[in-house]
Specification:
The protein is an alpha/beta fold. 31% of the residues lie in helices and 26% in strands.
């Protein structure tokens, strides 16, 4: 596919890196010569300096021949206008816009982005996507990562194994024997910075990060078996009252009225704004890096502290401080790859990469056709993929042990109608099944081969 990306920031770069690695023809537009030069030098993409909504720049980028335009600049209005121009002048088939300002997405204005009113095919809201991810993590305490597939019937869990994990040094083949009714399977392991798909004889070790694909009904039990039987958080402190913090607090008010929520916000004007918007949450004006403010927020009795500012340093350090001051668990947004390796050593229990969440949202639309969901995990070293099996797939009608599944792919669950099956060697995939799998980052072509998805879907 030929894809134009407007915006060479963290999200634009993440999308470009992913799509270029999969042999798409990618062109990136940005007004910053420095960003364009960096992305052109480091990735196999074409870079153009200019304004992504200007017709002459889009023409130079080849909008007339492009299959898709993805507008992810920092300005909503530029993103929306880029899609409109691409549609009106160049008839670009698919237009995706990132929209961050929540006023555009308010329910009373939902008709704004209808097909009758705009040329935008897909609207991506990073704040809502990240906020929803935070809420899902809160519903499964103990999980480092929790990604939902097949309309929520299958969950991919990332779990950090501690010394007290009761199933350490147990061959994976024995787990099925010990827990025959558990609808869950270990599909990926990160150990010492390396990611691999385990064999049935593999054993888990303390310090491993494992990915488990489970049915929705088995997720909580799975966490308990892996040493993370933890009650849902009721006492919650949020560090940062921006769009994400406000969204999470509002969702907690609406869906978990028993929760006690406090928000620490450093900007006085913003603190006053969210105090007016929210009904129950307590808003404190001050820095999340100030231990006195943390104690005023009751950090010593908090079930969880969640760092949601737009500054990785503040998030990491405030989460560390919150842990030292008594918070039982910590969660943090981490936007840069450089900061991610610090999370574990600092004792942060769970972290969310907003860039990865946004890239995952967009990849679902880039990999159209039979690819229903894609989510990068472990810093982009692997993915969880949901695909629909076609009649022409070479895995149809064969037991998985005979289906020539490559080493870098592990099928975890099959969704057939309303039923969910955990994959075993005896499992047979049928046409129309939704298959949820773990795959190393370089396995896109192998997944294509397995499911007979033509290149246009990637």
């Amino acid at each position: 596919m030929k894809i134009i990306i407007c915006g060479a920031g963290q999200v634009g770069r993440g999308i470009a890196e992913k799509l270029a690695a999969e042999d798409n023809a990618v062109t990136v537009i940005d007004t910053s010569a420095e960003l364009v030069r960096a992305i052109s030098d480091e990735l196999d993409v074409q870079g153009i300096i200019g304004h992504g909504a200007h017709p002459d720049i889009l023409e130079k980028a080849g909008a007339a021949e492009a299959d898709m335009l993805i507008a992810v600049t920092h300005t909503d209005e530029v993103n929306m206008m880029a899609c409109e121009v691409a549609n009106a002048i160049f008839n670009t088939p698919t237009k995706i816009a990132r929209v961050r300002d929540q006023s555009y997405l308010d329910g009373q204005y939902r008709a704004l982005f209808s097909r009758e009113n705009t040329a935008i095919d897909v609207v991506i809201s990073p704040e809502i996507a990240v906020g929803d991810m935070v809420m899902r993590r809160l519903s499964l305490p103990g999980a480092m990562d929790a990604v939902y597939f097949a309309e929520g019937r299958v969950i991919a869990l990332g779990i950090q194994l501690r010394e007290d994990c009761p199933i350490l040094d147990t061959p994976l083949s024995q787990l099925a024997e010990l827990f025959p009714d558990l609808e869950a399977i270990v599909v990926g392991i990160e150990r010492g910075g390396k990611v691999f798909v385990p064999h049935i004889s593999s054993q888990m070790q303390a310090g491993d990060v494992v990915f488990v694909i489970a049915s929705q009904g088995s997720a909580a039990r799975t966490l308990g078996l892996f040493g993370h039987e933890e009650p849902p958080a009721r006492d919650i402190v949020l560090g940062g009252g921006g769009n994400i913090g406000q969204y999470v607090a509002r969702q907690l008010e609406e869906t978990r009225p028993e929760a006690h929520v406090r928000i620490i916000e450093n900007d006085r004007t913003r603190a006053e704004e969210i105090a007016d918007e929210l009904q129950k949450a307590i808003i404190l004006h001050g820095s999340a890096l100030d231990s006195e403010i943390l104690h005023e927020a009751g950090i010593e009795r908090a079930d969880i502290y969640i760092a949601l500012t737009n500054d990785d340093k503040v998030n990491l350090l405030s989460a560390l401080l919150a842990r030292q001051e008594g918070a039982r668990h910590t969660m943090s947004l981490i936007s840069t790859l450089e900061a991610t390796p610090l999370a574990g050593p600092l004792g942060i229990d769970s972290w969310i990469d907003p860039r990865a969440v946004t890239v995952a949202e967009i990849l679902q639309h880039v990999r159209r056709g039979r690819i229903r969901g894609v989510y990068p995990v472990l810093g982009g070293k692997a993915e969880i993929v949901e695909a629909e099996a076609l009649e022409t797939s070479p895995v149809i009608g064969k037991k998985l042990r005979d289906a020539d599944i490559p080493e870098g792919v592990r099928i975890g669950a099959i969704v057939r109608g309303d039923e969910v099956f955990v994959a075993t060697g005896d499992t047979e995939i049928r046409a129309g099944d939704h298959v949820v799998m773990f795959a190393l980052a370089d396995m896109a072509e192998e997944i294509q081969r397995l499911f007979r998805v033509s290149l246009e879907y990637f």
